[in-house]
Amino acid sequence: MEKSILCDSSALISLTEASLEDAFYFLKEKFNIKFIIPPSVEYETILRPLEGMFKSHSFSAMRLKRAMNDGAIIKIESNGSVKRTTNEVLRLTNNLFFMKGNPLRLVQMGEAEMVALAKELDVNHILIDERTTRMLIESPFRMKEHLEKEFGVSIMVNRENLAKFSELTKGMEPMRSSELLVIAYENGFLDKFNEFKKQAFEAAMYKIKFSGCAIRFDEIAEVVKAER
Hints:
59% of the residues lie in helices and 12% in strands. It is an alpha/beta fold.
């Protein structure tokens, strides 16, 4: 039975910058997982770097392009329904929290289109390292607290927009690249390192953290301790 995971730019960047994109191949082969991206994510992670913008990411872009060519990552075009939902996600999320009467722009096109495509395809699992969108889905009031702590002011919430966004994302389960790596590790992805596989796993967890995954040091220590 085929399973699908919608991927955001942030997680793709974390994994490829850490040279761990082979996890997509491994999990596709092991569990018949289809890793899906919308056009805006392809543009952000592949096309734009290969066009000469963000040359520091161009080698990662080449590796992601190879993964697409090999079918490990699949792009699905956005239809009219997805485009309308994308615009709705952008409208809701960027008019959700207000600071001193002004709306805070929190979500970009890539994350919005990914959420919209997940809704269109009825896919619950989304791979995303970017913290803001993930928190808006999982715990929006923790996001409010985080913003208040960061800016030192009260943040007002548009509860109508929050209710609509929560309904739109109902059932979606965000996961980080670190969690995908745990699944891959537990199923043999790093077995090639033999007796050093747990050390390789720990090193890989630190690498994806420094490549962009929002995972704390204490989380890494806890996860590594729990694994064999």
